[in-house]
Each structure stands twice: as structure tokens, then as C-alpha cells.
Amino acid sequence: MSSRKSIYEFWLSQGDEKIRIPILPSSIEISTPSNNEKIYLPKLGDITVLQMPGAKTFTFSSYFPRIANIPLAEMRPTLISKPWNYEDTIDQWRRTGLPCRFIVTKTPINFAVSIESFDVKEEGGAIGDLNYTITLQEYNFITAQKIDTRKKTTTTSKRPDAKATTKPKTYKVKKGDELWNIAKDIYKDSSQWKKIWNANKDMLIKRDKRNVQNPGKWIYPGQVLTIP
Fold it and tell me: In the chain, where do the E strands start and end?
């Protein structure tokens, strides 16, 4: 006579590999740490600072049967593997460092989990059966942020330097020009005429010898002055 099967199914999987727990545990313990903090304040006592709940933890115990054809089994005997095959698979999953998936059908339990502990043992009177207790913890996927390692340059806006941005390299003399007014237009300072004179005096003296006595007074339209 076959026993009535449960509506629940316990499944563990990683990638394409799946394990259905053949013997349902009698209970499952689910805990969720609060992570709340308590702070003592003088005259007020303990103050609780609420934090986001921690990851859920699932713990249950059962056994992998030596004999597949037993009433408690939730699966057809042909689908039940050898006890140590289950142990070997779960142990390999732990070593990958990757999360598993834990599902209990007909319940809201469907979580990515890490295998925190997996303890197995054989007990006298049931040699060959493999008793185990497994603890699973909810796994939170974290997306790594891309860090730009390139050196960032800070662009600061500066007011343009009128002298640096508007000063030409040369100046063509117009009718009525004198060095002082050219210096005022270019440098915004008429006293800078001597800079223009010193940069062009050989050419100006050669053009008009009177510039020896009166530096820069004798300039003529069309002359091209070098602007230092």
C-alpha cells in the first residue's frame, strides 16, 4: 500500500543540476535577523535604531535513504539516487563558490542561496542511511560598479586674458597712429609703447633717422610692427 504523498516538494539546484529531496524534513526553520542597533543614551535608556532586515536563513534536517522503495519517499524509487551521491553533489556545489536555488513548492520559498553548512552522519540502526542537516542563507546578488581609473581633469572656467587672447603678433600702422595709442589698443596701457619700440627700433630708425632722437615718433602708414 502506498502512502499519501505531500503537496510540497523540496528542490535544490545549481545551473542545470537539480536535486529533489527524497524524504521531506519534519520541519524547516526560517530566521531573519533584524540587524537593529541599540544605543544607550543618558536619561533616555536604550534607543533602538531600526535597520533593514538581514538575509533569511533556512535550516532543515532529513536523511537520504539507503533503500529507495520506502513509504516515506516522495519520489519513484528509480528517481532516488544513492545517499553518498547526494552528499557528493551538494559538497561540489559548495566548492564552486556560486549560489544555488532553493525552492519549496506551494510556498513563497524560492530563493538564491549559499550553502552555509552541510553536516552528514550515519547512525547505528540505520546503517547506509545518510542523515544530514543543511543551512542555507539567502544570497543577494551585487552588481559591481565600474570604476573609471582614468585621471579626471577638472575644467575651470577662467575669464579670458584680454592681453593673451587679443594681442596680435604684428600690427600694420594706420594714418594718425603713434606708438602710445597702439600700445593702449593692444596692451590697454599706453605706457607699454616702449615694448613695441624696442622690438622694432632697428626698422624704424632705418626708415627715419629722426627716430634716434625721438624714439617711435616717426612711423608711417603701411609699416608692419612686430608686437612682443
Answer: 10-14, 17-20, 28-31, 37-41, 45-49, 57-64, 100-104, 110-121, 130-138, 170-172, 224-226
pTM of the model: 0.55
pLDDT above 80: residue 134: yes
3-state DSSP assignment of residue 21: coil
Lowest mean pLDDT among 48-62, 63-77, 197-211: 48-62
Cα–Cα distance, 211 to 121 (Å, whole number): 113
Q: Which domains does the chain have, with CATH numbers?
A: 10-138 (2.40.30.200), 162-226 (3.10.350)
Report d(CA 139, CA 136) in Å as an integer.
9
Q: Are 164 and 158 in contact (CB under 8 A)?
A: no
Q: What DSSP line would sit under 203-225, residue for residue?
A: HHHHH-GGGGTSTTT---TT-EE
